[in-house]
Amino acid sequence: MNSIPHFGLQCLKLGHFRLASTIAASLLISACSGVNLNQLTKEFDYYWLDTGTGMYCKAFADPDLNKHCKSIVPTNFHSREVQVIENIYQQQVTGPNRIISLMNILTKGDNLDYQPVLLANNIYQLPINQQTDTVWEVLIKIDRITHLKK
Question: Are 126 and 109 in contact (CB under 8 A)?
Answer without folding.
Answer: no
